[in-house]
């Protein structure tokens, strides 16, 4: 069988042999013709010697593998270009397979199976050696695997066997010629490789097709079904790792395109629906999140900028909810007056729901009998003109205390906002549940309450993703719900102690707000403990932060324009006198001071967007459809700065209110610092009294200057209640002549 090995090697190296000699070598021709025409080639010494010499020359020159028959472990190829190296490996394996196929076509029918196996093993040995590997004569399967890993390229199907050591049983796909293999595999050369077996319908691996013997004649091969050959080839293909990566990438791209298409289709339908319903125009948002990622921390100014682009009424999608922002007085009038009953409800945020006992207060309760009952009780027992007049002695005492405190710290820097908050808080808390009786304790409580109220209002005003994407509410991504629960628990414990103590005392002679509520409940009124706590919380939050912040803005504006401060002080000197202190009876005689307060509320409204309204049914506003459940904001901050109505709107000019009839009753929709309609602020009376009385006393008793003499920064910080971004630090200098005027 040595000659057949020789021929296989010669055929495998045909490419190199043809490059060595010009034309076809006579020895190769003799052997080829002999194999094609007879069962055994001529075994002459001349032919054998010449073939061996030719093979030896080619082998030594190109592959350094020694002469034929010496298959040693040191058979290696010299280093050469990697691409050429890969091509040669492919060529060697393909040529070796072709030589095998040619030998099978010419082999006799009576050749033994053992001889056939020997030829296959010899061919395998030859190919392994030519790949630079060591041939294991005891384990041909192992050598086959080495060859497979070394080439990492296409393996001809005709070379694949079920097992070389399978008890003499040879199983393979239908043997194909080199032409067939190139026809099916060349277009994907380097990307696909055949497998030994294919899976049947049950998932169990089995050979593609059984051949009775490698001795099968050429005629039987030629008659084989082309369909079967294709089936065998395709069933024997597994994906190369690189191809798998490419296919995964294509699958990802196709999936992304599919998802994007469906998302865009959904939003296109929404946009078409929006257009068909004539919803207000607005900016395009992102899928799922809408415009949430684009919200500026200063939401009121961000909405004002959008109004310049999209008009006085525009919409934007915030997560799953649609928000409509109104920045025009005429459109605001439609909402707050003409269709007030539809917009009388509130869209309660999670922070408001947690912080105000499920929204059971005046601000967040839905419009209905319960809300009317709470508003009536609060108005009658605390906020009516008669009740406010009855609390005069409380306000006077707290104003005198803060004047005295500032006189003690005269000529030194003080935090104006902190001082104003303490004065307002002491006044409100005394009205709510009586006097503390300890001045030091009052001041400490004032500082603690100030921090509490600031944090409460911050959490209430910050946009919460859980409000706009309810499916994320469970995760509380911003921690707003958790922080609000922790914050409210502290004050709730205080309320609980006060209520329990009052119920044990059972003293009906006390005249504070808490005792009035308990008396109503004792008399069979509809109030419960939750109502009591929510009303107390309303008065603390709404009555302290708003008033103190507005006084801080007013002093800052007047310090930046000393002429305004001087004019207000001159008015006080005329009405009050330099040897007298301000009394609440002087207030109605101070029109310029009243104009200063109005101008502050115009330029720095306490609630720049008011509390959001929630329409109970779909309706038409400004020619656009407002859907039921839409969150509606009235941007009073923008309305108060509308240049089409207000002359020089960014300038602090109290003079504009001197000869005008503008007030904050809610009837003039160009000026809405307290809102309008059914949900207008119920505490206007007490807020006005405290604001004017405290501001008049500060201006009459002291000169106010900034420590470094520079202009004060008036930048605002957005929240449910607006405040100065940078606290006002000022130095009070006494104006009055006698110390007794500061006691």
By CATH, the architecture of the largest domain is named Orthogonal Bundle
Domain count: 2
Number of β-strand runs: 16
Radius of gyration: 48 Å
Structural class, judged by helices and strands?
Answer: mainly alpha
Question: Mind telling me the CATH superfamily name of the largest domain?
Answer: Cytochrome P450
Helix content: 40-55%
* Total helical segments: 27
Shape: globular
**Overall mean pLDDT:** 75
Largest sheet: 3 strands, mixed
Parts with pLDDT < 50 across at least 5 consecutive residues: 13-27, 33-43, 59-117, 130-135, 147-238
Give the distance, in angstroms, between the N- and C-terminal Cα atoms. Answer: 128 Å
Query: Biggest sheet, strands in spatial order?
Result: 5-6-12
Overview of this protein structure:
With 743 residues, this protein is mainly alpha-helical. It folds into 2 domains: 2-239, no CATH class; 299-742, Orthogonal Bundle (Cytochrome p450), CATH 1.10.630.10. The chain contains 27 helices and 16 strands. Strands 5-6-12 form a 3-stranded mixed sheet. It has a 3-stranded antiparallel sheet with strand order 8-16-13. The radius of gyration is 48 Å and the shape is globular. The termini are far apart.
């Amino acid at each position: 069988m040595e000659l057949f090995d020789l021929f296989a090697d010669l055929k495998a190296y045909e490419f190199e042999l043809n490059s060595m000699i010009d034309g076809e070598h006579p020895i190769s021709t003799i052997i080829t013709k002999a194999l094609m025409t007879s069962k055994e080639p001529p075994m002459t010494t001349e032919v054998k010697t010449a073939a061996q010499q030719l093979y030896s020359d080619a082998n030594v020159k190109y592959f350094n593998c020694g002469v034929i028959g010496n298959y040693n472990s040191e058979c290696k190829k010299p280093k050469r270009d990697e691409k050429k190296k890969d091509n040669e490996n492919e060529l060697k394996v393909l040529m070796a397979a072709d030589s095998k196929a040619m030998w099978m076509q010419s082999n006799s029918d009576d050749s033994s199976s053992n001889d056939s196996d020997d030829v296959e093993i010899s061919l395998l040995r030859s190919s392994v050696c030519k790949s630079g590997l060591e041939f294991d004569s005891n384990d041909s399967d192992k050598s086959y695997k080495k060859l497979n890993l070394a080439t990492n390229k296409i393996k001809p199907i005709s070379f694949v066997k079920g097992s070389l050591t399978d008890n003499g049983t040879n199983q393979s796909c239908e043997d194909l010629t080199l032409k067939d293999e190139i026809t099916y595999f060349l277009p994907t050369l380097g990307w696909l490789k055949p497998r030994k077996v294919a899976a049947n319908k049950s998932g169990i691996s089995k050979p593609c097709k059984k051949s009775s013997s490698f001795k099968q004649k050429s005629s039987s091969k030629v008659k084989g079904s082309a369909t079967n050959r294709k089936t065998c080839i395709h069933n024997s293909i597994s994906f190369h790792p690189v191809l798998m990566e490419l296919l995964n990438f294509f699958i990802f791209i196709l999936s992304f395109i599919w998802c994007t298409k469906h998302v865009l289709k959904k939003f296109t339908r929404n946009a078409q629906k929006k257009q068909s319903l004539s919803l207000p125009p607005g900016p395009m948002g992102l899928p799922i999140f809408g415009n949430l990622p684009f919200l500026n921390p200063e939401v009121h100014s961000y909405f004002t900028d959008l109004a310049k682009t999209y008009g006085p009424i525009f919409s934007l999608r915030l997560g799953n909810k649609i928000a409509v922002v109104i920045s025009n007085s005429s459109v605001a009038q439609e909402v707050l007056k003409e269709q007030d009953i539809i917009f009388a409800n509130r869209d309660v945020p999670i922070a408001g729901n947690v912080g105000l006992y499920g929204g059971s207060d005046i601000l967040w309760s839905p419009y209905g009998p319960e809300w009317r009952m709470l508003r009536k009780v609060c108005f009658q027992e605390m906020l009516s003109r008669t009740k406010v007049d009855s609390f005069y002695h409380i306000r006077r005492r707290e104003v005198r205390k803060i004047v005295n405190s500032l006189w003690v710290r005269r000529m030194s820097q003080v935090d104006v906002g902190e001082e104003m908050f303490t004065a307002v808080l002491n006044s409100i808390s005394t009205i709510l549940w009586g006097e503390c009786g300890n001045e030091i304790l009052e001041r400490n409580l004032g500082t603690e309450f100030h921090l509490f109220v600031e944090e409460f209002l911050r959490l209430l005003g910050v946009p919460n993703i859980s409000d706009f994407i309810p499916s994320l509410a469970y995760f509380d991504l911003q921690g707003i719900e958790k922080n609000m629960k922790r914050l409210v628990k502290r004050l709730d414990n205080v309320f609980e102690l006060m209520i329990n103590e009052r119920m044990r005392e059972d003293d009906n002679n006390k005249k504070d707000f808490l005792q009035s509520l308990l008396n109503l409940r004792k008399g069979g009124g509809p109030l419960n403990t939750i109502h009591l706590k929510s009303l107390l919380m309303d008065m603390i939050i709404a009555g302290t932060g708003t008033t103190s912040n507005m006084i801080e803005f007013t002093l800052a504006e007047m310090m930046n324009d000393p002429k305004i401060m001087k004019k207000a002080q001159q008015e006080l000197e005329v009405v009050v006198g330099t040897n007298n202190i301000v009394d609440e009876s002087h207030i109605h005689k101070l029109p310029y001071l009243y104009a200063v307060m109005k101008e502050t509320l115009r330029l720095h409204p306490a609630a720049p967007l008011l509390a959001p309204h929630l329409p109970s049914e779909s309706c038409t506003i400004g020619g656009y459809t407002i859907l039921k459940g839409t969150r509606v904001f009235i941007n009073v901050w923008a309305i108060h700065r509308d240049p089409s109505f207000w002359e020089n709107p960014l300038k602090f000019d109290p003079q504009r209110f001197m000869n005008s009839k503008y007030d904050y009753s809610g009837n003039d929709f160009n000026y809405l610092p307290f809102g309008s309609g059914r949900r207008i602020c119920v505490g206007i009376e007490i807020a006005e009294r405290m604001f004017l009385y405290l501001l008049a006393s500060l201006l009459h008793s002291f000169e106010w200057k900034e420590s470094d003499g520079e202009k004060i920064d008036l930048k605002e910080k957005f929240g449910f209640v607006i405040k100065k971004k940078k606290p006002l630090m000022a130095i009070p200098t006494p104006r009055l002549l006698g110390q007794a005027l500061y006691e």
